[in-house]
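Researcher: Sequence recovery benchmark, item below. Answer with residues only.
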């Protein structure tokens, strides 16, 4: 594995002072924007192959004229809470009281959305586009003459900022409608990979792909799709307690229309992602759709050796690899440990490797214990089936960037795999839609359980059990620590995006479990990992 970039190399993408660096030009304040009606988006048919999730009806509510934050700030100032919550109560046991890292705010900031611009270094690839042959695999999309690509220069793009007190999302409609950056405002950490230069590579279905970083929408074919490089339409959305943005585009080959609604609510750190794909044509059309999140989680624009993946499955399917010790593509390997190697640990991915989960159980995540930062993806179990991890391994960084920065890819798909037999068919006149929740997590040491309401950990150490609990909204919970079914301790806690709970419970012997209750409802049962 290549070494991490220096601190100076990292901040090159963030500073505004050097014309050779990625730069951001923000408007001085969110403008007063009348938000359009939701019907302004792409046309769709109400017939659904999945249970659709309502996107809400935006109202033409103007945004308040407050100071716009720097969309690429390394450590944005958090708004201090205006009301202090009551202290958590603790049962009388020999175990310690939980110690949140901060007290949760009871009056979260309202969500906001506004337009601005962002300036990024970009290779000159537009003039290198060439018409494709009519019989090419990707026609009518263009090919790229790599010999005609010119050196990088600053380029200004339209951007949309979506944020609340906990999470900031920067969307680039002109770059495939992608999420350019996803930030945890409670820690000041950037979760997504920030490529210091937009650079075309030889990857992808078209034989070229625009390496930008962030989170892209791969549509309507496998790998990186066909239209991630071009401008998508967009509109701003608003509800009583949420703000959002929707981006959309139409595939030139099939006529399929895709829209992605991104929404932040006032009191949650969760980013709601609602894909909606329609077939307005008179014939059925083939379809692959994937969300490709290019992440680092370390705070250093490269994954660290402390990164681990949480995928609740027993086996994974090999997609592609340069690791000669692993079986051929389409083969199953045990997860997380195969042939004595723990592939849930990023440091085991020595060569490039892509793995699909053989089972979809509704939630996956990744966590870096060194930065104490992670991410959770939650998706409906009766809908999207795709989960994929790809790590670059032995691929040199100069293929996709101009410094030593690296990333890993965390994929979520409507399809189970990229393989042809898993390509879906969308009937004429039908629409599919579903809702996913992606939320940052921090302060819990590791991750070994998650759903839409909480992420938790139970880890055995030489000193006892480390308990970690994070919730994407302020929540009162009760923890029960049991040994062989007998309750040994109980704690009442108040947790939330600003106040993850991490505590050490002295323990000996075997048979430990942790139950997490919300009032009379059992939310989770955890068993310790090592």
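Model:
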């Amino acid at each position: 594995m290549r070494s991490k970039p220096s601190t100076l190399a990292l901040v090159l993408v963030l500073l505004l002072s050097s014309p050779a660096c990625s730069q951001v030009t923000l408007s001085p304040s969110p403008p007063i924007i009348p938000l359009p009606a939701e019907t302004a988006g792409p046309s769709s048919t109400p017939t659904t192959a999945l249970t659709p999730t309502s996107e809400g009806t935006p109202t033409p509510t103007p945004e308040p004229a407050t100071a716009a934050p720097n969309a690429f700030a390394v450590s944005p100032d958090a708004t201090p809470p205006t009301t202090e919550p009551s202290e958590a109560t603790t049962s009388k046991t020999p175990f310690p009281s939980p110690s949140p890292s901060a007290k949760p705010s009871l009056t979260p900031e309202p969500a906001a959305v506004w337009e601005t611009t962002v300036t990024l270094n970009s290779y000159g690839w537009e003039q290198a586009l060439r018409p494709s042959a009519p019989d090419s695999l990707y026609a009518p999309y263009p090919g790229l003459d790599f010999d005609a690509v010119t050196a990088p220069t600053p380029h200004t793009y339209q951007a949309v900022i979506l944020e609340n007190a906990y999470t900031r999302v920067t969307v680039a409609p002109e770059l495939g409608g992608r999420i350019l950056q996803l930030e945890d405002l409670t820690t000041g950490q950037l979760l997504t990979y920030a490529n210091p230069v937009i650079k075309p590579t030889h990857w992808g279905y078209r034989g070229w792909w625009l390496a930008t970083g962030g989170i892209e929408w791969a549509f309507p074919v496998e790998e990186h799709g066909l239209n991630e490089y071009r401008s998508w339409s967009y509109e701003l959305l608003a509800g009583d307690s949420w703000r959002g943005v929707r981006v959309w585009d139409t595939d030139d080959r099939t006529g399929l229309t895709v829209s992605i609604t991104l929404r932040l609510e006032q009191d949650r750190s969760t980013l709601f992602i609602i894909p909606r794909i329609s077939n307005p044509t008179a014939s059925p059309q083939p379809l692959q759709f994937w969300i490709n999140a290019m992440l680092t989680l370390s705070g250093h624009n490269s994954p660290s050796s402390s990164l681990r993946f949480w995928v609740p499955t027993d086996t994974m399917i090999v997609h592609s690899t340069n690791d000669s010790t692993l079986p051929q593509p389409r083969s199953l390997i045990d997860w997380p440990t195969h042939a004595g190697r723990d592939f849930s640990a990023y440091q085991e991915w020595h060569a490039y490797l892509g793995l699909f989960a053989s089972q979809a159980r509704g939630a996956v995540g990744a966590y870096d214990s060194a930065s104490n930062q992670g991410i959770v993806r939650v998706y409906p179990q009766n809908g999207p089936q795709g989960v994929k991890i790809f790590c670059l391994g032995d691929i040199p960084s100069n293929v996709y960037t101009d410094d030593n920065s690296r990333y890993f890819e965390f994929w979520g798909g409507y399809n189970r795999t990229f393989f042809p037999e898993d390509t879906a068919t969308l009937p004429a006149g039908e629409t599919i839609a579903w809702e996913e929740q992606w939320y940052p997590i921090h302060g819990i040491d590791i991750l070994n359980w998650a759903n839409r309401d909480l992420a938790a950990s139970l880890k055995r150490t030489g000193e006892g059990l480390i308990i970690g609990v994070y919730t994407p909204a302020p929540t009162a919970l009760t923890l029960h620590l049991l040994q062989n079914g007998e309750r040994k301790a109980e704690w009442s806690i108040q947790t939330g995006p600003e106040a993850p709970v991490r505590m050490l419970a002295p323990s000996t012997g075997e048979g430990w479990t942790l139950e997490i209750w919300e009032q009379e409802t059992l939310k989770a049962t955890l068993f310790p990992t090592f």
